[in-house]
Write a structure and sequence with these properties.
Mean pLDDT: 89
Number of domains: 4
Low-confidence stretches: none
Number of helices: 25
Strand content: 15-25%
Helix content: 25-40%
Length: about 850
Amino acid sequence: MSKRNNTRKECLTTSRRKQQGGIHTGFVVFWLCAGLAVVATWPLAIQMHTHLPGTSDDKLIHYWNSWWVQRALSSGQSPFYTRYLFYPVGVSLATHNIAWFNVLPWLLLEPIVGGIRAYNLALLLNLTLCGYTFFWFAKELTGDSRAAFLAGVIYQTWPFRLTQIGHPNLLSTLWVPVFFLFLIRTIRQGRWRDTWLTGLSFALVGYTRWQQLIPVTITGLVYFACAAPHWLPRNKRHVLPRLAVAGCVAVVLLMPAVLLLAGHTDDGSNLIRAGEERMQADMLAYITPSGSHPLLGKYTEPLYDRYYHNRPGGHLSTAYIGLVPLLLALAGALTKRWAGLSWGLMAIILILLALGPLLRINGQLYPQIPTLYGLLSPLGVIRLMREPDRFDLFLALPVSVLAAYGMQAVLSGVRRRTWWIPTFVTALLSGLILLEYLAIPAGLTPVPRFPSFYEQLAEEPGDFAVLNLPFDPLIAKRYMLAQTVHGHPMVEGHVSRRPAEATAFLDTHPMLRSLRQTEEIDPRLTDVSRQMQTLQDAGFRYIIVHKDLIGADRVYHWRRYLLTKPRFEDGQIAVHAIVPLAGRDFELVEELVSGIGPVRVITSTSCLNPGRTMSVDIGWGTKAAPAQDLYVELALATDRGIAHHEPAVPVSSGWSTREWPANALAWGYYVLHVPPSLPADIYDIRLALVDPATGTRKGQRFTLGQVTVTEPPCVLQVPPDAVGVNAVFGDQLRLLGYQLHRDGDHLRLVLHWRAERRMDSDYTIFVHVFDPATAIPVAQDDSMPHRGALPTRLWGSGEAVRDVIPVFLDGVPDGDYGVAVGVYDATTMERLPVVDATGQPRPDGRLVLAGETISVAGHGP
């Protein structure tokens, strides 16, 4: 009896020692994996509170995801729908990529260490757990801790993974080895505990990122098929029912996500994006170290530029397998032929899928060669991965397993009498693998310094939204990061798969629609306050103009339209109130009658010839509601009295002053004709408001400015080094002068324009370098001003615009050529008539720059 008790005690002692040894090993391996995560992402560890990992702006979305989930849960809302983006309509986040296993630790860490540190710590934890979970999986397969650790190093620092540190939903595949661990146990041992855990871990793979289910299902089926000897025998018939139960468990656990996804997608077409053929792996990338390698990068980066020359955003990932891992994997495949069969087959299939629909070798596409991806793509499921090269992320699984088998073979040949020799070999090979895979310094982006206004906005009471300008789905990612500071909804945003209805408000609001379509406010929307009132009614309070993200021209046009002073302004932003207040946001230049008067006056010219016209743009404002219809009468006057006046017209087209409330703003555009018989003199431009019913003037006339009427051509200002021209195109555009520079085969023509009046068309400017004998162009450039960024329809009257036009002389035959400029309407192809400085029309709507000769020599015929 005592002997039996002693045996039982020895078994318990042995089991306890193994358990303690496993805990000790697990503790050591976890911290080794944590150290690997720090090294692989260096210098993130020393910039935890100042930088975010990744070079693309996608990381801003993932940071926002964590912030939004916290906000939704704390207020009892569903995290799968938000009105904080695409306000006031809101948007479903059912198909939005949320890295839940990065979000969950963030929620725990953020109250302790702050948002930025919490995000980075969560990412490092995910990277650590990738290596840690794979260690236990590989140890299950090999029974060797050293071989398992080396395999974990490969899996954790896999090059494709390290290029995705800005995408935590791609970086984390920690549940994949867990799934295979319990799948293999279920097939081999058939325990119910492993069955349930197989289904659970498969569901967790899907909740990490639902697209991970595609490669995991493919590789799982490959393993199941190759494991036939384990489940085909009669005594293993229990395997299939247990796997069926595991499948049911996974389906039940995934059903909430499936129903949520199905409820927000019609036919699944919005889950697939075009352009995937550019995002497949190049065959040579599998043997090319990362372009960010600290030692080899200067040699390999040009290779990646060649491999992926047509990939948007550059080469965002690498398919490199590594020399040491490849040799170990080959050794594992040879020494574990039957056990390595399934893993080798997985590797081949994943590579074939990663090659995409078109085979790419050294940057060249070979459409005539069929690919596995191309053959399977009609099924649609494969294409849900969106970018074929993402299959390379899962190539880490079979390569690491085969490398573990190979390392096991290497260690079996090492004398084990001295414990440190196999440990040294493991450390050496692990170090070599890390050196091969290293891509440091990792791409990090400094967290921007936000304007102090955002903190003020966060404290401002009330439930309201903000309108960020400019509109851009990519720039909106930056607005989302700013939203985590100020905490208010905004009219735009960026989600993974945006439903069409999300932009309904943007598409129906006239001002927002013009901003979204043309990046400018349509000047024909003269009813500024009425446009703003609809925004206020929808819940908006401020317009935030991001000056650092747009050009000075656009800032000028938007400010000109809004007619208000910013409530806040620094080098980054200018903030305008949606509903401004007279005396605070704008001032009347002169109060004419009933609290109404001009806020801004713009005249197109200060010098005019008899018989010509000029335009006057007036921004109007009110202190109190006029409550009556008013018209505008413009006149030219001297001390002797009124010399000429225009018929009265409405103050603002389409919006009667009777409807104007207090604090209203609106634009009025007027034309002042100068009779041919008007004597040369200096005239005051006078404004009066009249009652349209009686024609009586309300209040006194107000002088807007002066204009000189003269018979000789007006002398207009041009830069000192510019050649004066003073030609008028169609009574709409005046070419004041130009500068012409030449650098080899590159001409740079700088044109100085002035708008004679507001234009309703977007004109195209052409520059011809032409043969004087035939007038046929040998080189030319046709474009809207500022290369399309500043169309003429948006120019205010009198606005001066400097436009730089390049013309290239490559291939122009030897000879001497002239230069001509013209303007045409691209919709009708009709040229505007041109009148030169002497008042003479020029033929063919083309102004030849007198005295300019371009000599070309050395090109040949």
